[in-house]
Design brief:
Number of strands: 9
Helix content: under 10%
Strand content: 35-45%
Largest sheet: 5 strands, antiparallel
Order of helices and strands: EEEHEEEEEEH
Number of domains: 2
CATH class of the largest domain: Alpha Beta
Radius of gyration: 22 Å
Number of helices: 2
Length: 178
């Protein structure tokens, strides 16, 4: 008599636990959308994005707190004040520079340049206006000063690898990608 065994069919990638909860040093994958206070979508993911959970500054801390303990399929929605999201709007990060100070004279509104603030930190400045040989640049995030709503659905949770924990971020499929 021949005994037939049914093959195991996995409906998820290896290493992903269906009932695993989000905890310190887990890799969380999720789809999300970010809305402004009027409900307009500012950003959304069509494909899941992943981050290393556990205070590595890979996601807003308030969002990480809300996600902690959740499992695959759980959804969170949290309103974030500016201080918990993109920061308060800082007028001191708006500067007027002469056009000649830019590496290219073909400067256009919307272009971005790296610069340093008073403490030597690198700031990404966006050109907001050009007039009379002067360029206005703004080092604030475009959504600084805005209250936003973050909604996410957990799509996968797995233990982080040792290298991911050591580096403080998720590595791509197949290993280390910097």
């Amino acid at each position: 008599m021949i005994q037939v065994k049914c093959p195991i069919i996995l409906d998820r990638p290896l290493g992903i636990e269906i009932n695993m909860q989000v905890a310190m040093n887990t890799v969380v994958s999720m789809t999300y959308e970010l809305r402004d206070s009027d409900g307009n979508i500012l950003e959304k993911s069509d494909q899941p994005v992943s981050y290393l959970h556990g205070g590595y500054d890979n996601i807003f801390p308030r969002v990480e707190e809300e996600i902690h303990g959740k499992s695959v399929g759980d959804t969170i929605e949290i309103s974030l004040e500016p201080a918990d999201a993109f920061g308060e709007y800082d007028e001191e990060l708006v500067q007027i520079e002469p056009l000649a100070a830019f590496p290219t004279q073909d400067v256009k509104v919307g272009m971005q340049f790296e610069g340093e603030d008073e403490t030597g930190d690198v700031v990404l400045y966006t050109v907001t206006n050009i007039e009379d040989g002067k360029v206005i640049v703004d080092g604030n995030h475009p959504w600084a000063g805005e209250r936003v709503v973050f909604k996410a659905t957990i799509t996968a949770v797995r233990d982080a690898g040792q290298e991911e924990v050591a580096h403080g971020h998720v590595h791509g499929a197949g290993g280390h990608h910097h």
